[in-house]
Write a structure and sequence with these properties.
7-stranded parallel sheet, 3 domains, alpha/beta, 17 helices, 60s Ribosomal Protein L30, Chain: A, single chain, about 25% strand
Length: about 525
């Protein structure tokens, strides 16, 4: 079996392959451009990559025997996972290898900021001795705001607590009980973290909600003289707004290992600011991390090729092919229900209750469906590397429990999948779905116990309003005034003259002015835009 190592990994990882006679191992001396890589793939069954080589659809098409792609690291942005899934290629990563390394870099960056170490070093190298110009601050007793409490954020918090800092954590999926276990204070709203933190460190994935979340508006809410550290993803910070705040002194300093576009342009204004520390994406660049990732990726690929064992797969549920064919429509529906609920604004969720009714109670496996619900629920704002393999572990780390039930109770539909969200003993959200005619036609048909019909793809506007004549016309007029076209509509209500729920499938996402106009009407409330 031919294993192609496209990017540098540790020698232990390569030796692990060489020690097994079943493998033919080719190690490329450097990253090759796609055009040069394509002719080498005809008989390759496994590819090992880091972040340099891009596994595109063209690469996959040129490798007819390819069975697995192993990423020595966490992020899989350089792998076309959808194309790999369509081709039946398993994509695996090594999520644990970089955790400590990146957490340590984050904390070292924080300390270097506080004591202005790089700047002081530069003056010493230049032959100067200027103690007064580089007076720093203590981090003891200061508040560190941690945006994202996944593996890395949690490790950073441990180190901050050991140095006598107060840690304030914001994570939409971190529960109060889990926060107490970690010894941190939970910020239920991100604005409270901005307002209270002396230092802020970023450990969130890039999503539609987090992209550019640190911008002029959020910076304005921060303490004067706040310090920013980012060793996660550059796209989370609006670099233009950051530069303005650094120049004005609103932000005292920033330490950045990642950038919106890499490598950072030679003339980028961040390079010329005296209160900035910059490193070239070194988060995983330690001997130990490379050893761990290189060996782990070799082990998981070898196990898969030799025994069929699947570990750390991002695109393969743990069921046999025949069962998965039956379960797959419910997997797709479950992920959409979870994704919908995650965008409905419920906070403090610590329990998901998944009910399988009608024909769904006889599914050969429910675990893949429940994992899909969790994945959809967590993927919008949750940890960066969430997938169907690790999603239960991630949920547990966040203090979220999951319960499943195969129900014999009568249901309105032949197939019934229902998800309820709880914060303590209070139900804070629910949605149910089914299929119309065939498994290829899924619909969400209950939202907060109200009968509706919500498609499972597209931009959807949901809002409550008073059930009275003229409301639908008013909604249509407001959207028309903002050039937003309605593709379809569903209306549900509790009782005549009471509260109604309208669901609109839109051709385009309405802008803030349109949403503000809707929300300003006293008869309209709970205006939400979700993307499925």
């Amino acid at each position: 079996m031919h294993v192609l190592v496209c990017d540098p990994i540790s020698l232990r990882g390569i030796a692990y392959f060489h020690a097994r006679p079943e493998f033919k191992v080719t190690v490329l001396p450097k990253r090759l451009p796609e055009a040069e890589l394509l002719p080498l793939l005809a008989d390759v069954e496994a590819m090992v990559v880091r972040s340099e080589t891009k596994v595109t659809r063209a690469i996959l098409d040129a490798a007819p025997k390819l069975r697995v792609v192993g990423r020595a690291g966490v992020g899989i942005d350089n792998v076309d996972v959808e194309a790999a899934t369509q081709r039946g290629v398993v994509v695996m990563n090594t999520p644990a290898g970089n955790t400590i390394t990146t957490a340590e870099l984050t904390f070292f960056m924080l300390g270097a900021l506080a004591r202005r170490i790089p700047q002081a070093h530069a003056t010493m190298v230049a032959g100067k001795w200027d103690r007064k110009a580089y007076q720093g601050i203590e981090i003891f007793g200061k508040t560190l705001g941690v945006l994202g409490m996944g593996r890395i954020g949690s490790e950073v918090a441990k180190r901050a607590l050991a140095f006598g800092m107060k840690v304030l954590a914001y994570d939409p999926f971190l529960t109060e009980s889990r926060a107490k276990q970690l010894g941190v204070d939970l910020a239920t709203e991100v604005d409270s973290l901005y307002q209270s933190s002396d230092f802020i460190t970023v450990h969130m994935p890039v999503t539609a909600e987090t992209r550019g979340m640190i911008n002029a508006e959020s910076i304005a809410k921060m303490k004067p003289g706040v310090w920013i550290v980012n060793c996660a993803r550059g796209e989370i910070i609006n670099e233009t707004d950051l530069v303005v705040a650094l120049v004005s002194g609103k932000i005292a300093g920033a330490a950045l290992d990642v950038f919106a576009t890499e490598p950072l342009a030679a003339d980028h204004p961040l390079r010329s600011l005296p209160n900035v520390i910059l490193t070239p994406h070194l988060g995983a660049s330690t001997e130990e991390a490379q050893e761990k990732c290189g060996l782990e990726v070799a082990e998981i690929i070898a196990s898969f090729l030799l025994t069929g064992e699947v570990r750390n797969a991002v695109n393969l549920p743990g069921v046999d092919a025949k069962s998965f064919e039956i379960v797959q429509p419910y997997v797709a529906l479950g992920e959409k229900i979870g994704k919908l609920l995650s965008q409905m604004g419920a906070s403090g969720v610590d329990r998901l209750y998944v009910t399988f009714g009608g024909k769904a109670k006889d599914l050969p496996a429910t675990d893949p469906v429940t994992r899909a619900v969790l994945k959809g629920f967590l993927s919008t704002n949750g940890p960066q590397d969430v997938n169907t393999i690790n999603v239960r572990s991630i949920a547990s780390n966040l203090g979220i429990t999951v319960e499943e039930k195969r129900s014999d109770e009568p249901v309105t539909f032949n197939e019934w999948l229902h998800v309820q969200l709880f914060a303590g003993d209070i139900k804070v959200g629910s949605a149910g779905g089914t299929f119309f005619g065939s498994p290829n036609n899924p619909r969400i048909v209950r939202l907060f116990s109200t009968a509706v019909e919500i498609p499972t793809s597209g931009t959807i506007l949901l809002l409550n309003h008073q059930d009275r004549p003229g409301m639908i016309g008013k909604l249509g007029s407001i959207l028309a005034d903002h050039n937003v076209n309605i593709a379809s509509m569903s209306l549900g209500r509790e009782a005549a003259g009471g509260q109604a729920l309208t669901v609109l499938l839109l051709d385009t996402k309405p802008l803030k002015d349109c949403l503000d106009q809707l929300a300003a009407d006293r008869a309209i409330y709970n205006v939400r835009v979700v993307t499925l």
